[in-house]
Amino acid sequence: MLNSKSAYQNRIELLQGTLDMLILKTLQWGDQHGYGISQAIRATSADILQVETGSLYPALHRLERQKWVSAQWKKSDSNQRAKFYHITALGKKQLAADYARWGKMVASIESIMTATSAGEAAS
Question: Which domain holds residue 22?
Answer without folding.
Answer: 4-88
